[in-house]
Q: What sequence folds into this?
């Protein structure tokens, strides 16, 4: 994967997470009402993770600007995507989860794989003797 593709991946990740974060921060009830999902008893439970998604969106934008220099940040993106996709797949397979959340788990899993790939691709090349 070349540097241009890596940058594009992290721009897409930044826009994706920031858009979701913004939606759930400013209109937390909208997705629940639109998709007929029982909301939590307090919207703060939705808005706090939404704010975290905005922060991660900024982090992905930082990675996109200088992937090699910010390689160490990629592991946090891997952990974010593992957390969401792992938990969602777990509940999907054990107790079910509303269909609304499933596409995000699939997208996050694909991003997780791509992030691991880019982390490896950006590893410093060792000098051969």
A:
């Amino acid at each position: 994967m070349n540097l241009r593709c890596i940058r594009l991946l992290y721009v897409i990740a930044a826009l994706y997470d920031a858009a979701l974060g913004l939606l759930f921060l400013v209109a937390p009830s909208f997705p629940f009402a639109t998709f007929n999902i029982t909301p939590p008893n307090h919207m703060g439970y939705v808005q706090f993770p939404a704010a975290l998604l905005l922060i991660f969106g900024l982090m992905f934008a930082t990675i996109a600007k200088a992937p090699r220099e910010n390689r160490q940040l990629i592991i946090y993106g891997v952990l974010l995507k593992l957390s969401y996709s792992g938990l969602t797949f777990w509940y999907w397979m054990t107790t079910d989860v509303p269909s609304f959340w499933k596409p995000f788990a699939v997208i996050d899993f694909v991003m997780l794989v791509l992030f691991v790939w880019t982390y490896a691709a950006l590893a410093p090349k060792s000098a051969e003797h």
Observations:
- Residues 3-121 form one domain.
- The chain has a mean pLDDT of 96.
- The chain is about 75% helix and 0% strand.
- The chain has one domain: 3-121.
